[in-house]
Amino acid sequence: MNTFGSKFRLTTFGESHGVAIGGILDGVPAGLRIDAEFLQSELDKRKPGGKYATSRKEADAVQILSGVFDGLSTGTPIGFAIFNANQHSKDYDNIKNLFRPGHADFTYFAKFGIRDHRGGGRSSARETAVRVAGGAIAAMLLGEFGVSVRSGVFGIGDLEARGLDFDFADESEIFALDKELDTAGKNLILQTKENGDSIGASVLTVINNAPAGLGEVLYDKLDARLAEAMMGINGVKGVEIGAGFKASKMLGSQNNDLMRDGKFSSNNCGGILGGISNGEQIVIKTYFKPTPSIFKDQETLNLSGENTICALRGRHDPCIGVRGSVVATAMARLVIADMLLLNASSKLENLKKIYS
Amino acid sequence: MNTFGSKFRLTTFGESHGVAIGGILDGVPAGLRIDAEFLQSELDKRKPGGKYATSRKEADAVQILSGVFDGLSTGTPIGFAIFNANQHSKDYDNIKNLFRPGHADFTYFAKFGIRDHRGGGRSSARETAVRVAGGAIAAMLLGEFGVSVRSGVFGIGDLEARGLDFDFADESEIFALDKELDTAGKNLILQTKENGDSIGASVLTVINNAPAGLGEVLYDKLDARLAEAMMGINGVKGVEIGAGFKASKMLGSQNNDLMRDGKFSSNNCGGILGGISNGEQIVIKTYFKPTPSIFKDQETLNLSGENTICALRGRHDPCIGVRGSVVATAMARLVIADMLLLNASSKLENLKKIYS
Amino acid sequence: MNTFGSKFRLTTFGESHGVAIGGILDGVPAGLRIDAEFLQSELDKRKPGGKYATSRKEADAVQILSGVFDGLSTGTPIGFAIFNANQHSKDYDNIKNLFRPGHADFTYFAKFGIRDHRGGGRSSARETAVRVAGGAIAAMLLGEFGVSVRSGVFGIGDLEARGLDFDFADESEIFALDKELDTAGKNLILQTKENGDSIGASVLTVINNAPAGLGEVLYDKLDARLAEAMMGINGVKGVEIGAGFKASKMLGSQNNDLMRDGKFSSNNCGGILGGISNGEQIVIKTYFKPTPSIFKDQETLNLSGENTICALRGRHDPCIGVRGSVVATAMARLVIADMLLLNASSKLENLKKIYS
Amino acid sequence: MNTFGSKFRLTTFGESHGVAIGGILDGVPAGLRIDAEFLQSELDKRKPGGKYATSRKEADAVQILSGVFDGLSTGTPIGFAIFNANQHSKDYDNIKNLFRPGHADFTYFAKFGIRDHRGGGRSSARETAVRVAGGAIAAMLLGEFGVSVRSGVFGIGDLEARGLDFDFADESEIFALDKELDTAGKNLILQTKENGDSIGASVLTVINNAPAGLGEVLYDKLDARLAEAMMGINGVKGVEIGAGFKASKMLGSQNNDLMRDGKFSSNNCGGILGGISNGEQIVIKTYFKPTPSIFKDQETLNLSGENTICALRGRHDPCIGVRGSVVATAMARLVIADMLLLNASSKLENLKKIYS
């Protein structure tokens, strides 16, 4: 339901225009240094603002409520909250009784019979701030083992990056993976925004230095868990691992990653074989649809099922894939941290190292 | 770990060349007619044999061991087993000490420190027979609500179906979705097989008549669970929902599915909005890599890490995506059945219908 | 870990002397009226203060952060927090480096290698306020079906109630189940407190009007889940259902509950047969040890393993069983609410009522 | 549902008079020697037969179907089955349409609306053979760390053992913990049996050498999990840890376990403080009601709700607590194995031992 992960486990709450959003991160091993500054800086990457995102103003200041003592994790759950500051719920009064196209309005109403019209309520991407917070703490754990996760935008509409420079992406306002995409992408986003429209994007995520052996047999495979994590991000419609869709067009003799001199000669598998990491770079591509909120009149139904027109106002991202890049990193971190913990008891010899 | 689903829950065991494979299906509501003939017929679709699959001979006769009385489910777990008949473990003696490229040999060894070299052991696609059995029982449950799941192959290598005829696919030996793909695909598979090679494929799965409201907020979204289910099938490297990765190139004004006269005007979202079904057809595409087992000499390492050559013998599918089509149907059925059960308590009014 | 329940699921965080305690209640069906006043009044029953409990002053004001809109549950998780007001962490400075006898100090240190000495940190009974909050919302759900849970103290030290008057218990400052226990119990508690000592107690919990059929086959039996819930309350060392320990001394012909004229003639089983409710009153007895915090010098070890003397100061309950009575009610409510939801899909005919 | 444990996880299936019972044990670390002889010998302890148990003849021969290769666990799930041999389903024809007093007949019918009258179906204690098998494999794992679990009968009706000799209990046909109970208990059981009646019993279980630190904060406490495990055994109505319900009559100064010279001076807590093991012997008492099957006419209802008389025939244990002793051992083993695995990631330093 609202819990992600099994041993490293994030449970979240909160709506876009409610009092607060937040979460409980359970299973953090004791003795981990919790770097509050890093935590906030990760939230700052995702937070709204700037020309290429929504103009909603949220400091996204995260407050740790438990689970940390003298700067170290205690092994007990880390509770945290981000209080909402800049709700403009009135922006939504005019859509109170209709279903916004492309949004979850219709399906939430079908499921719950209740309409929380204020900015999408729980279905809003605002909740992803909580994932980013959880992912930041996961990153602290992963850092202890030299594992790092990086993401960047490699496609916006029909534009595609040629280079894959994560350092560049970190500096880019739109997390573009090369200079050309950065320039052309910004133009495209602004132009789309001016047209009252929105645009799709795609994100590349890599996990460096993950040890071989992560992923549980047989229904917690690493690739399955990553696919679940990525597909669960707001607006995602496709996920690939390694060669991905292209693998379906290949011959076995092209696709198989041979081994030689102690290592793999290629990485079509994207670092995962049989659902378990092989020690190579883990490579994931995630495809985002355009933001459903656009400023054009759209046909839709009202709550009584009658035809009507949806005309949005308010503040919206013209390209959710951009901030989605930060969330993709967070989700990959959460998955890998969980898998590290789960894998700890895969072999009797591992347990003997602990209980001896 | 080896359990799939939360309320409609399949736990499986078994290795390719072990004594038996089987499972326990928990959460089947009491009073469901269990059609043993249909169950076996579903297994027959997946079972090995024929020109386009491995020549291993397995009747895949499934034996129900519990949970059914007088032809009806009792509400208690349905245990079942398929005893392996045609193990040729000796076929694998020559690869006992090396890692087959593209297989899970290396990663299982990294994870467990144990080598069960007999046909891939647990990582073999043979285990998917158990999923098909579980999926068949799920189909009986879904049938009570008019929900049906269908799959077919829409791509083999560079070939792609133009039509999408599931009735045709049901009759095709390679589950091809149109006549042209059936003919050309068979040729391509045979030719690839003669070359000692293998080929990738892609599968389309649709779910008809699923009620709106399925999918749990917020980490058991229907699309996330489907992505997990599909990516967890042996050899899958990519999953799309609805417009899929093409959505990442679209404008919001193109991608949004408008509503009019009580229904959706398009289905780019593939039947899922905000992770919850909207009552439209649910559309999933699953991309399979080529079978890793090929009959060409391949560079690899032995268990001591030294360079060696892998030369396989034995019986293998030239295109795992073909039988993967049957497994995709099974996984979608398991997910939808689980979601139906989970959703039963979404509204207070649903509970009142039961406890009154 | 820090999550209780499967479909009606409470996840909690917080330490005795941290910033806040709180929780996320997931799985609340949409459309339930959330009575904030009742919620607070339930917390007030458990809150510290008075002659017979610790003198720590906490308003225990609970703040709902999400999941409720226009007074109704929305089906999304209900996040809530109780900010700590009256921490006297300095009271604990002198025990910073030693293990308090009877407390979890030693075991938490063994498990986590970290010492949060401030009032027991996570192991403090302060966390039970969160359970009471969750239980109060469960009570709102149960109320829709006429189910109620009541608890009272039936034993304090060697004193035992003769009558079982829950209305009286509700008014008693020590939740005593009859007048005699109320009078004698208060005296005993005060006298024990004056001696710098503490005393054990026992609590009776009954669940009225629970429908027959609750409890999952076979490892989520209702009695097993209740036993887990009660044994997990701070200080509990024993749990009985129905005739309990005494059943082990009985003959089958004495213990079996016969049926006649449409109902059970006795209730030795305590409303549960084979782990499933039978429609009779569910009866649970829970036994609390004396509060481990006493004001006598006690031998113990310091963190280096050397002998030392523990001399406590601070504010402590002389009899944790008293407030434990409120927590027992909360836990029973949480279990029954979970079981109601889980049972909703036990029969095909139940599902048909929903999906039709 | 039908799964016990989280990381060391047993899922079971099967009915008393079905084709087979069995289970899937998931999470067994790779590299554990699986001693098939020991496994069978543990099942033999529980198996029916002899003067003091039911005369149903079952070899209870357990067949391992997966997860073991060359005598070692592979890390993949261990599937196993016990085929039923000696079903006398006809013995139950006369109770087909009525509810046996003290049994789960009524509640299963209320829950599922289906009647599997053959020997109680899933609710039969026959399923506990599967738990014993799972517990035996758990014992192999625990043995690697020097942990052992032992149980014996300490009470039968009003008789109580004075000594607690587990070696003696192992040799006793009724697992009595001393010679006097053995002699008097056998007489009492036989006499009760001749009277067509049955008798309750109580079982003491101890866990030796469990490391300190087992038990998860805060809803997977070790004592809560043990209480759940024991209360879930057929016929159990009460569970105590350590001083148990006597603790509710004690003063804190009597009950607290002091520490001196590096160890605890007493063990009233039964080896568990704050839900976490403290390294002392873990002590659990489990109370069994008398077998509900007795050979006396008993008032009951038929499936139409009319008064009728239940007159049983067939083969039944006169004292289920006796064989319950073997099951108590199994459940404690399963819990401790699970807790060992869960605890492996409690500290960052533990993970560093593995991933370095």
Automatic annotation (TrEMBL), chains A, B, C, D:
It comes from the Bacteria. It catalyses: 5-O-(1-carboxyvinyl)-3-phosphoshikimate = chorismate + phosphate. FMN binds at residues 122-124, 234-235, 274, 289-293, 315. GO terms for cellular component: cytosol. Its cofactor is FMNH2. NADP(+) binds at residues 46, 51. The keyword NADP applies. This reaction introduces a second double bond into the aromatic ring system. This is Chorismate synthase.
